[in-house]
Design brief:
This protein is 32% helix and 16% strand. The chain is an alpha/beta fold. The strands form four sheets. Strands 1-3-4-9-8-7 form a six-stranded mixed β-sheet.
Length: 312
């Protein structure tokens, strides 16, 4: 990878890794205490540890207590995290348009209109089956390599009935699931059956933090870095354009859990394809997207945008 391409890649990362975490109950002024799920609260049921985790993984986090105009934003987020759905009808339509246009919504409120229908509840993941069954039954690619049987949601969680064509993880014998990822338009809605694994008191337990990291905190520039690696491979080895995930991990220096999120996202967007033996290769759409991203990274708007931001 040339130094010139690397410079473009860093500039391009401004628009690749952003997270908007909505907290619509308002922010406390300077206090580290607050209501349940508050991203500024250090209390047991706050989510300040989640914000800190995202920051440690390379995401610049900003708390937003009002919904911005996502359609008018020149550099919209990749991911919107909705801890508690207090959106009105017009705001819901804005978020839906964001998803339909290719964004990812992560919602942890089972009462949200974005969440699938409820199927039941559970107290501990061990109630849902054996560890082996839970691991083998996880269909959400970013969680591959994580022992999802070790997820420990505080006070349990809600089980959803996955819509047709969706992917699920941590499921019951009846097909219900705690995590459901559903494609909508060009984007994806990922529904947690509650925020119990994300609160301060639970984030360090079991596999809660790895799951949160895989779904919410991809590292800056990873998507373009993977695409550029596959792009170079396609151009230099037309007869053998695919690489293994182990190769990608070694060449990018990224942790496997963050790569799984990236591979899943790029596959969903059809920028890469995965063969039956697990090797990946860039597609024509991926080539077009990469070239467009690197070219637009030279525009003043992106060069002046500063570091990648994640709004919470």
């Amino acid at each position: 990878m040339s130094s010139g391409s690397r410079n473009l890649l860093i500039a391009g990362s401004v628009v690749v890794v952003t997270v908007l975490l909505l907290w619509l109950l308002g922010q406390s002024s300077g206090s580290r205490r607050g209501p349940s799920l508050s991203p500024t609260s250090d209390d047991r049921l706050g989510t300040s540890a989640l914000v800190a985790l995202a920051g440690e993984l390379g995401t610049d986090v900003e708390v937003a207590d009002r919904l911005p105009d996502l359609a008018a934003d020149q550099s919209p987020p990749d991911i919107v995290l909705l801890l508690q759905d207090l959106l009105d009808e017009d705001q819901t339509a804005i978020v839906q348009d964001f998803v339909d246009s290719g964004g990812t919504l992560v919602v942890t409120d089972p009462a949200s209109s974005f969440a699938p229908p409820r199927a039941g509840m559970f107290d501990q993941t061990s109630e849902l089956g054996t560890s082996e069954r839970l691991r083998q039954g996880c269909e959400i690619d970013p969680l591959a390599g994580i022992d999802v049987a070790g997820v420990r949601p505080r006070h349990g969680g809600v089980l959803y009935r996955p819509p047709l064509g969706s992917d699920s993880c941590i499921g019951g014998l009846d097909g219900s699931a705690f995590l459901v990822a559903t494609g909508e338009g060009d984007g994806t809605v990922v529904a947690f059956g509650g925020a119990g694994l994300l609160v301060n008191a639970a984030l360090a337990e079991g596999e809660n933090a790895p799951v949160a990291a895989a779904l919410l905190a991809p590292q800056p520039g990873t998507r373009l870095m993977v695409l550029e690696l596959l792009y170079t491979r396609r151009r230099t080895e037309l007869d053998n354009p695919s690489v293994s995930l182990l190769d990608v991990e070694a060449l990018t220096g990224r942790a496997r859990e963050h790569l799984e999120f990236t591979i899943w996202y790029l596959t969903q967007k059809e920028y890469i394809k995965r063969s039956d033996n697990g090797r990946i290769a860039i597609t024509a759409d991926g080539v077009d997207y990469l070239e467009k991203s690197l070219m637009s990274a030279t525009q003043p708007r992106r060069l002046n945008a500063g570091q990648a931001r994640a709004e919470v």
